[in-house]
Design a protein that fits this description.
single chain; 510 residues; alpha/beta; Beta-Lactamase; Heat Shock Protein 90; Rossmann fold; 6-stranded antiparallel sheet; 5-stranded mixed sheet; 15 helices; 42% helix; 21% strand; elongated
Length: 510
């Protein structure tokens, strides 16, 4: 025997894999030393035996069927691709998971199959551990999602009560030292609300509890809504809000995109003392660019890389603004979820420009950047004096009493109930100027939207409504179409926003 043949024989005999050769009758014709060690049979006890000697008896029938099918058209392949587990049996009856590679060959026109066998107990255990770990992670994520949903509602309820009571006390003590103390308390409550909202938002995003809902979003409509929301804030600070509309349309999540832009615009308003804030949209290099530019205090170049960090705030000349430093961290996470990227350029004292880069693949056809001229902002409505009758449905007793007190002090006629069924009872003799104020989460069977639909159907009246929720992004995402004469406010509801919503609905009520 030449050297090459000796090497070949040695490799076959002491291969890392157990090698077994069977003939057309499924009889074992060859086993190497590794197979003898693996199966713990002497070679003489295996040669000439049926292959089933190495397989648990309960699997004989199924295995014979698979082997017969394979022998009809033998190819090089892994055995068990269509079988959940392959199990082999040693001489002592101990079973183990096996990985098997088959390779057919011919000698003198006779068909043989070589099987390379490995004990994959360790990798099988690792695989099972990974599956178990993934299932545990999924359970943890579901638990975290449930916690966040509960926290969004339950943690905001007492904060809502405190905010309403504080606003009522401010109304009862219009001046003096106590009023100054209450004003300071109001600022602290606002800070608590911002912190809670930021923490819940960032936790929900990082946990993967939010799945983007793909829908058609017209940027012109989105910008119009943002203008309506931020115009009062910018006007109050003596700023100009310029909105350049466009015909661009995207396929993305409307609620998340709006949240992203709201955080950027809110930051721009906070850090701009004079001048303007511009909201633009343009298409460049197969990308859609949504841009917010301000004439604010700017960001030092060495700080730009850190502004998306959680709890980080730019501090220029010792001047910090209200907030907890989560707004841009939320922007970062929302952009990641949506598949966008963010670019920021800034100069101290010259302002900041934030560009949201949207991949061109998300653009809907025929959305060329035919920019529309800037729309003049409408004159803000004069403070309303309408006093509609308010029907409050809120299942939390503390929030309901505080809301009644606050709205009563504002001069409204308020009636209230703690359950969905109370709405029709309280509206049994409607005056025609009623406005519903409903909590979204009422009970296991009813939401605030169910109450609105039921009241409108039973009374055949388009009664205006305000819906409040501690998890407003989820509420908005579940809406399939807009609800007429309906305002949505996130808890803890800002009292000025609540009064503005009531006045808008009263003015629009036919």
């Amino acid at each position: 025997m030449d050297k090459t043949a000796q090497i070949t024989e040695h490799l076959l005999h002491f291969s890392p894999d157990a090698l077994i050769v069977i003939n057309e009758r499924r009889e074992i014709c060859y086993v190497n030393e590794t197979a003898v060690e693996l199966f713990r049979y002497p070679a003489s006890d295996l040669l000439g035996k049926a292959l089933e000697v190495l397989i648990p008896e309960r699997m004989h029938t199924r295995h014979a069927d698979h082997v017969a099918a394979y022998m009809g058209n033998p190819t090089n392949r892994e055995m068990g691709v269509r079988i959940a587990d392959l199990t082999a049996r040693r001489a002592d009856g101990i079973e183990f998971p096996a990985g098997i590679r088959l390779s057919p060959f011919h000698v003198d026109d006779r068909k043989y199959v070589a099987a390379a066998v490995r004990d994959i107990t360790e990798s099988h255990q690792i695989s099972q551990a990974l599956v178990a770990a993934r299932e545990e992670a999924d359970r943890a994520n579901r638990a975290k999602s449930r916690f966040l949903a509960t926290a969004s509602h339950d943690l905001r309820q007492p904060l809502q009560t405190i905010r309403l009571l504080n606003a009522s006390m401010l109304k009862l003590t219009p001046d003096g030292e106590i009023n100054a103390l209450l004003a300071g308390q109001s600022e602290a409550i606002d800070g608590m609300a911002r912190l809670l909202n930021g923490l819940l938002d960032i936790s929900r995003l990082e946990s993967g509890a939010i799945e983007p809902k793909q829908e058609t979003v017209r940027i012109a409509d989105l910008y119009a809504n943002l203008r309506s929301e931020f115009e009062p804030l910018t006007r109050a600070r003596g700023l100009t809000l310029e909105v350049e509309l466009t015909r661009a349309t995207l396929q993305t999540d409307r609620v998340l995109l709006r949240q992203l832009l709201e955080n950027i615009l809110g930051n721009a308003v906070k850090y701009t003392d004079a001048g303007s804030i511009k909201l633009r949209c343009l298409i460049k290099d197969d990308e859609l660019l949504l841009e917010v530019a301000d004439s604010g205090i700017g960001i030092p170049e060495d700080k730009i890389a850190r502004i998306f960090d959680e709890y980080y705030q730019v501090d220029i000349h010792g001047e910090r603004r209200a907030g907890v430093g989560l707004g841009l961290a939320i922007v970062r996470e929302v952009a990641r979820v949506l598949g966008f990227s963010i670019k920021i350029t800034s100069q101290v004292g010259r302002g900041t420009q934030v560009q949201i880069r949207v991949p061109g693949t998300m653009l809907i056809a025929d959305t060329a950047n035919d920019a529309l001229k800037d729309v003049e902002a409408p004159e803000p409505p004069k403070p309303g004096t309408l006093r509609p009758r308010l029907v409050l449905i809120e299942d939390n007793d503390g929030v309901r009493r505080a809301m009644e007190l606050f709205l009563g002090l504002e001069g409204f006629d308020v009636v209230s109930g703690g359950a969905a069924a109370d709405a029709l009872r309280l509206l049994s003799n409607p005056r025609g100027d009623e406005i519903l104020i409903v909590d979204f989460h009422l009970d296991a069977n009813n939401t605030g939207l169910d109450v609105i639909r039921n009241v409108r159907e039973k009374l055949q009246m388009m009664i205006p409504a305000v819906v409040a929720s501690g998890d407003m992004p989820s509420v908005l995402r579940m809406l399939k179409e807009p609800i007429l004469l309906c305002k949505f406010l996130g808890k803890p509801v800002d009292t000025s926003e609540l009064l503005a919503a009531i006045q808008d609905l009263a003015s629009a009520n036919p």
